[in-house]
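User: My instructor asked us to take a sequence, write out its structure as tokens, and then describe one feature of it. I'm not sure where to start. Here is the sequence I was given:
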Amino acid sequence: AEIYQSCRSEKEIVDQFDLLQKELDQQINNKILSTREKLLANFDDEVVEKLKIRLKESKEYIGKYEQWLWAITKYQLNDLAQFNNETLTFDLCKQPYIKHTYPLGKYKIGKNIDDIHIYRMGHPLAQHILEDVKEQKCANKELIFSLTDHEGNVSILNGLKNKHGWLSVVSINVSSFEASDYLICFGKTADGTMLTEVQVQRILTLPATNGIDTLVHVELEEVLQQKELNTNYLLDKISRQDNEYVRLETEKLTKWADDRMNAVELAIKETKQKIKDLNREANKTTDTREQLKIQTEIQELTRKQKKQRQEIFSIEDEILEMRDKMISDIKQRMKQETTINELFTINWKLL
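Assistant: Let's start with the prediction itself. The structure tokens for your sequence are:
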């Protein structure tokens, strides 16, 4: 009402409404940001990942795998590239490998990028870095992880604060019908409590510093036992998934074969009934023209019936081909090859 009373022209009214809109937008945006920061301060990191939002507005959201890739790349290309954490970009200044050449210049993690190189898991440079890191031998170390200095909230680790123990990470490649890579993470506290896989994964996302190497002590025999247990559990899980795949594929093939055969058999039955009805009409009629018409229809239906019966053999051949393919897939899955590579075992302390 005040705008209408103080403004005399239509332009002044429009300008005043535009100014009011900007002021309200700013107030609303500030309120949303403030509320979001208060909420996220109490949200667990896992919830934040699912919501795909960050506390810092200037940063773009990236998932945990991209975060890991970013951290590994920064470590591996430390002296060869300049990194910008805010824009998730890095400028590759020197070639990192002697026998391979990669384009120098800017790389960025993200989507819908046109002007610079898109950096992701499948990029040749990223693949090379990951393979290189996996091959590096890591000595047993003590790492001190800081839950206090972590920006987010990791509630699953609250009960482990001020405790210590050991943890191990193992890479497993399973090659059967298709190649799959897995990481199994396991560990234990000094008081004998086994860590869950998620707890180990979360510990490894925290800021860390080197501890005192002379105090490193890892029960290698226990590590080997847990490694075997976790590996067997994973392989058993994969085996159950393969069995379920075979069951579903067998069920799918059986239903498909039954549907195809039932459809053809129904069509033959309908054609046979039509021929039977026409023969009945032919026996009743005394008109020559009508008799000729009926016999012509019977002849066409008889040819159709013959083709339908031949189609059964074609469908049976098709079913056999599909079953052969399924058997081949099953045999391929049974030729499972497993490669196990222990990446590292460390002592940890959580502050």
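For the description part of your assignment, you could build on this observation: The radius of gyration is 35 Å. Try explaining in your own words what that tells you about the chain.
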